[in-house]
Amino acid sequence: xxxxxxxxxxxxxxxxxxxxxxxxxxxxxxxxxxxxxxxxxxxxxxxxxxxxxxxxxxxxxxxxxxxxxx
Length: 70
Description:
Blueprint: E1 2-3, E2 16-20, E3 27-32, E4 37-40, E5 43-45, E6 48-54, E7 68-69
Antiparallel strand pairs: 1-2, 2-6, 3-5, 3-7, 4-6
């Protein structure tokens, strides 16, 4: 489970911290993410915190993206 599960971000490149509840001994990794979002770490075991850092949006068009964790 992720907290928060959905994010709404402004155009600036500001890191967002997301809590991941995987359970003891459960491995997870980032399976897919848009090229404009950097996710660290890319995987782990047990519960943890990920940091999602989007690149600045210099366009006036809104962007949407999905990060898939497995």
